[in-house]
Amino acid sequence: MDTIQVLDKTFVPYLSEEQILDRIKILASEISADYENLNPLFIGILNGSFIFAADLYKHISIPSSISFIKLVSYKGTSSSGTVITAIGLEENINDRHIIIIEDIVDTGKTLSTFLPTLHKQSPASIKICTLLQKPDALQHVLDTHYVGFEIPDKFVVGYGLDYDGMGRNSKNIYQLSTADEY
Ligand code: IMP
Asked: What is the pTM of this model?
């Protein structure tokens, strides 16, 4: 694998497509075993998770469904702080077992802010499946139940993850070159 250039930054190879797919197959079989007979609903968070969600879902072997949402954050009242709402959730999630599919959990702010909104709709359970997690960057209380790879607190692109909207189409995951860190 060679280094890649995305906009003004250089990225070095970090995880190959083969490593990613091998790990995804393991995650998918764990999830399939844990949710047998529960007919879970997978919810992919756009945009970043679309490639991961597709590859993961192809390897899920139990009856289930999948849907995608986009999270939009805006400033609420001063007492509510930042509010994150979902666009596109049409399913009734009452009594459903939900598995959130996320590309990366960084500070944990996005999901920890959004999960209470989802809980209000009384799902049977909610678990998070993230391809990547940066444990050193976590600043919010968030339980991630299925984690593909724990990675250092460095910016990554590829396999659906972007840098300023670009780089999502790289098959492998690349890490920001040390020379480009600031
Ligand atoms: P959090 O709210 O800090 O956990 O951030 C989650 C979101 O930030 C992810 O869904 C990504 O969209 C974005 N993000 C965080 N770290 C990276 C990275 O290294 N590369 C690309 N996007 C990232």
From this structure: 0.96
